[in-house]
Amino acid sequence: MADFLIYEQHGAVVTLTMNEPELRNVLTGNSAAREFVQACERISADPSVRAVIVTGAGTAFSSGGNVKDMRRFFEQQIDPAKIRDEYRHGIQRIPLALYNLEVPTIAAVNGPAIGAGCDLTCMCDIRIASERATFAESFVRVGIVPGDGGAWLLPRVVGMSKAAEMSFTGDAIDAAQALACGLVSRVVPHDALMDEARKLAERIARNPGPTLRMTKRLLREGQHVRLESLLELSAGYQAIAHRTPHHAEAVNAFIEKRPPVFPQD
Predict the structure, then answer these.
(1) How many angstroms separate the CA atoms of 187 and 181, rounded?
(2) Helix (H/G/I), strand (E/B), else coil: 104
(3) Phi first, then psi: what are they for 55, rounded to 5°?
(4) Cα separation of 157 and 57, whole Å?
(5) DSSP class of 62
(6) 221 and 233 in contact (C-beta within 8 Å)?
(7) How far apart are CA 118 and CA 64, in angstroms?
(8) N or C: which end of the chain has fewer CB within 10 A?
(9) pTM exceeds cut of 0.85
(10) Domain boundaries, the chain
(11) 92, 120 in Cβ contact below 8 A?
(12) Per-residue pLDDT tens for 95-151?
């Protein structure tokens, strides 16, 4: 069986392409969870990586869970405890790996992002949508709840009211509506999607890798700790940043009015 994820690196940018277009890049019933975890571990261990793009092959970004595969849960009368463990050791490993990845991530949403596919976009830091993209938190439509952390992820991106509307109706929204509610930061022509994602990733990757990783960690921690706690963590990170060769080069380049040339991470 071919790999679910294609891992490509050009310079400091890694692109992860979900490559099961015949099944609309479903995230269950295959090796998706294992491969996302492995890819995130590989990226975390490689200091040369400064930005990551996640996208899908074919016409869909990801249709989420494999609905046909779900029939076995009631047809085979599987023990609920086993179903719970399947989620815990399967798809739930994706948000733990991708959301917590140290490197900045961009979802390049090339088509429908449905159910867990919508939640996958929310695991990334930045979302850019093709004009053909659609988004749906559609679990309720098939009689289940978000099993992949969507109830935690989506409200943090679009706010509780919009997240509740999407979750309770299961209705899809188009790219323009996604832009209006803040689910994506921009909508681009379909054929320009990957070029725009790469340009953004390259702008991010021009900055010092260690500083990018610490900045992302502060943004993540800032979502759930007290201000005093974040300030304390920020002071510690700043002490580290001030002593890096990247900081010295950036300050000297600013004073000397030249572009910085950062050392290899």
Answers:
(1) 12
(2) coil
(3) -150, 180
(4) 25
(5) B
(6) yes
(7) 7
(8) N
(9) yes
(10) 5-205, 209-255
(11) no
(12) 999 999 999 999 999 999 999 999 999 999 999 999 999 999 999 999 999 999 999
